[in-house]
Amino acid sequence: MITLTERSVRVHRLVQSVLRADAAATAAAAAPPAPSPRGRSEAEQALVGAVFPEGPSTAADPAQLARLARHACALAATNPPGAYRPEVSRLYARACVYLNDEGLIVQALPLYEAYDAQIAHGFATDHPFRLVSRLALAGAYEAVGNPARAVGLLEPLVAAALRVHGPGHVTTLNVRGGLASAYQALGNVGRAIDEYERAVEASREGLGEGHLRTLTLRNNLAGAYESVGLFDRAIEVYEDLLSQEDALARWEHPTHSLRLNGLRVRNNLAGAYESVGRYEEAVSLYRTTLADLERTSGPEHPDTLSCLGNLGYTLESGGRIAEARVIYHDVLERREKALGEAHPDTLLSRSNLAYHYVTTGDFGRGLDLCRLTLAQREQVLGPEHPDTLVSRNMLASAFEAAGEPERAVPLFRATLAQRERVLGPEHPATLRVLGSLAGCLLRLGNAAEAVPLLDAALTAQERLFGPESHDAVLSRNNLAAACREAGDLERAFALITTAVEQRTRLLGENHPDTLASRSNLARLYEAMGDLGEALPRYESAFGQLTAVLGADHPMTVTVGGHLSRARRKSGGGNAAP
Questions:
Q1: CA 109 vs CA 53, 63, 93: distances in Å
Q2: Counting beta carbons within 10 angstroms of the beta carbon of residue 249, is it exposed (0 to 12), middle (13 to 18) or buried (19 or more)?
Q3: Tens digit of pLDDT for each residue in 419-436?
Q4: For the segment 465-478, what is each residue's pLDDT rounded down to a tens digit?
Q5: How far is CA 283 from the centre of its chain?
């Protein structure tokens, strides 16, 4: 049933099923572990011999690795306890890397677990190999959407790394960076920032200001700042990184991975510029970074395509919708060609295009792509992976935007329940869904339920991320609208004037979010019967949105509709803006 030739290995389907069945039975049994499943030893030697034809200590055969990586997953599921075999550990490690590069991290998880178990049996608790294997396993847990397990592994690992290597060693810093990333994925951004800041200081002291690890940790710290709307702090870090001549010299090193680091920081800085409405600076920086990425890495490299997609998003945010749509299609086609239809990066591009269609009013194509992406993510990543939950939430938003809020509400409720279960009730993504559900209920005229939901979201966001975090200001803006619809105009006024002040100060007076809040203030004055205050605010917001986003942008059209209605009320007839 197991055939080994010079260049190939075939495991009969019956043997595969026996291996899997025996593994499942072993895992379910409470009794001491049974002997290794039938055929396991032969399968193990066949796979090792095929993937490493010149011997386990030599390079893997790429073609055989690509063909047999999934068989290694079946082997890993039957990993006998207490066994350490260097050649099998090497097989697991190479298969992990291959499957991860192919976007099959969910399928690779048993390999990461088996590799870590083997290293645990082969080396002492504080051996450096144990630290590295556990760090890799924690990263895999985070990648498949289980950051809580990652945190559970990494918190004690920090203490072990400090004990073995000291605070300034690269391995210790990698573990601390991994823990910070897991905290951020878990929604505990405050602890993530604290951990990043401690790691940065330790890296500065141990390795130096210009060391690659210090620079990388600072870049990741800036990303954590950005994730909670601390854009000024993020921009300050990114710009400082790019201003360091010694660092730039290292990033121009012939080694490809070092060159990429500088380009990635430029990409991140461009994204931060976009977040605060500095669209022209963002577009210019994305274009120069994209040209450098295409020259150094090629047009199909993942970083090149990510940068191109980010450029598309920025163009769309700045109102250049036609240019953005061309780029979204281009990125999707390139990823489909390079990675395949179901690779997570391809699914991300399809999701971005779907969202673009929905936000620009092409609901038919948007809904079709939302459904397709959700189905593919459920199949590839699982029904409760964070990316799958994003797609489910996006489908709900698409129904709402298409004028079917009654179909959106059950999807929002289901997504909220799943995020509460998987990520926790106070994860940023959970709180955003809570706000989305409230907004949809408001569209259905149910302000009575929407107000307490938005109150809960805002209270949690202020406590966790600060009263001027991006999400807290957004919830304050939306709660003002809900209070207006509920007839609580006094509270609505206090909320919306605060939101206008915060957005003007934090984002600038011409940022689309600021203009949206100013339009909401105009709507409140209209609801209060004060058209004298409402009309000039509508006119100002409409004029600035036209200049920033263009006359055909959905937000501009919406505010123009409010302005026309207010003019009719004031006796201005049916005059369009």
A1: 25, 22, 11
A2: exposed
A3: 999 888 999 999 999 999
A4: 889 988 999 999 99
A5: 21
